[in-house]
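Worked example

This section walks through a single chain of length 407. The input is the sequence exactly as stored; nothing has been trimmed or padded.
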Amino acid sequence: MQLSRRALLGTAAAIPALAATRPARAQRPVLKIGVLTDLSGPYQDIVGPLTVDAVKLAVADFGVSAKGFDVEVVAADHQNKPDIGSNIARQWYDRDGVDVIMEGGSSAVALAVAGVAKDKNKAYINSGAATSDLTGAQCNACTLHWTYDTYMLAKSTGAAMVKAGGDSWFFITADYAFGHALSRDVGNFVTKAGGKLLGGVRTPFPGTTDFSSYLLQAQSSGAKVIGLANAGSDTANCIKQAKEFGITASLAGLLVFLSDIHSLGLDVCQGLVLTESFYWNHNDRTRAFSDRLWKLAPGRRPGMAQAGPYSSAIHYLKGAVEMGPAAIKKDGAATIAQLKKMPTDDDVFGPGVIRQDGRKLHPSFLFQVKKPSESKGAWDYYNLIGTTPADEAFRPMAEGGCSLVKA
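Given that input, the structure is written out below as tokens.
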């Protein structure tokens, strides 16, 4: 069944999974996956409709029809507002029979939804949020954090720039949980590496497209590096406006996605260093996954926040086979506990594990954006310049303050 983009933009658009096109038989149990994402706002190209397609592809690839149960996928737009996100989560869990929420939104939305999942004893697997607090002080037994977080980004990008000579920083920070956590974590790595923090400013989110005054304030600080602790269209606008105003300090895009590079172009972004945990052209398995997704969404290649829900959906469905559909529907905490016990493996991240605190582990990669002359075509944008192993990429579990961690 093909859905129009307009249909996807509905607040709670129900989307039949690819694997469930035939009439459902009453005796077969049905698992319901809710994809809560930004379908119409500044992060729609980072997650959005392509994330929904990735989850549908996971259902198709897993072949649930042969596993004794069916799967339905629904989607909703949280509009980057915690109250809307948490209200949708409550409705899904209480009224609509959603068994697990995936993707889950920006950091403020994610923390709100994690609280709902805990209260309702329902499973929640976040991929799109960056805040490391999901596996730290605000961890809970019903939540997993799948794709990346602020600690990973900070360690890979922040420390590397200080070593390269960018030893004084000023932060332009999106004023919500994600921005706060990212600038905090990067700042810690900058100072540990011998750098200095010369100040920062918080910008409304959502609510502004003009960053000129913030950029000029950063320039006047004398910092060698302006850290952009934001994402999506906010980052893109900062990069474009910095060039327009002749900002001479180096820009550090602390959360930059493949879709941002595609939108801005290699002429603007060449030489930019960034961290991701997934790149579609990284190896044979990532290319195979991306080519299958291309058939659902021609002309698009996924970034890490879109690929992550595919990976988490595959693992969740493996857990459903292991536990049985009735058990996985009944108890969110038991579901998450089972998923933690099982090793992960898929075409997105390859082999991995999930820690006690709910942090999914896999390597992180430091990429440099290619020059236009180096690219072989659309979406061929990255050169790999460094890899952080899975056991080093994320914050040590003992340092997070998660109440689930047992000595």
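What to look for: The first strand starts at residue 13 and ends at 16.
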